[in-house]
Amino acid sequence: MKETRKIRALSVSNLLKKKYVLLPFTGAWNDAFSEPQAFGVWFVYGESGNGKTSFAQQLVKYLDEDMNKRIAYMSLEELGGHTMQQSAIRADWREHGSRVKILDEAYSPDEISEFLSRHKSPDVLIIDTIQYWQELYGFTFKRYLKLKHDHPKKLLIYISHVDDNRPRGSLSQKILADASLKIFVQGYRAFSKGRYIGPVGHYSVWPEKEKDIWI
User: What are the angstrom distances between the C-alpha of 157 and each of 43, 162, 180, 211, 212?
Assistant: First the structure.
């Protein structure tokens, strides 16, 4: 007979006293996203050619240099190819040390889970894109929940294609609903769409091009 677990619950006063590990974002990053929790799931989505990849690369640079995070970037579309190299140059990754790792092969969810379990493994994993991971390995929402549950002290950032400004596919839409920070990139602006929103509510990915679209 299966043993029944004891249900644990917090009082309201205990909940209000609870301390969380937040990322102390400043400047333009705080204006857009306030101080988000350091763990959990973030979701970045947008049409091609609107600055989605550029935003992800700027985020990597900020998390590394200002938040002192170890980062692994799995670009399933580019891997460690020449286009990824050029993107890294444009994002000024030249000064990044060993804290930023580019995964130059496609890895399954099980392989990634084992990788995240290692001593001194990355604090942050970026998966670009969720659609490629699903096509390559049959990634499901159940597997997504297990990865999140098994690594509660990691920050998992999923990048998604869109159709008509909505994440492409039902899996992506479920992950979007579950994510603590939802970032929609359009016209070289990254908008906070939920749970953590700063006083401005968006981040300028490419100010020069952004002005041509929004002003």
Answer: 6, 16, 10, 28, 29
Across the range 187-212, mean pLDDT stands at 90
Domain ranges of the chain: 37-214
Give residue-wise pLDDT tens across range 101-114: 888 788 999 999 99
Determine the Cα–Cα distance for residues 40 and 86; give it in Å rounded to an integer.
30
Write out the H or E segment, with its range, that includes residue 16. Answer: helix 12-17
The domain 37-214 is classified under which CATH number: 3.30.360.10, 3.40.50.300, 3.40.50.2300, 3.20.20.105? 3.40.50.300
- Sign of the C-alpha dihedral, residues 14, 15, 16, 20? positive
| Strands annotated E in 66-214 | 71-75, 100-102, 124-128, 155-160, 162-163, 166-167, 181-186, 189-192, 202-204
Q: Is the pLDDT of residue 89 over 90?
A: no
Beta strand ranges found along the chain (DSSP E)? 40-46, 71-75, 100-102, 124-128, 155-160, 162-163, 166-167, 181-186, 189-192, 202-204
pLDDT 10s digits, 59-87: 999 999 899 999 999 988 765 445 556 65
User: Which phi and psi angles does 135 have, rounded to 5°?
Assistant: -65, -40
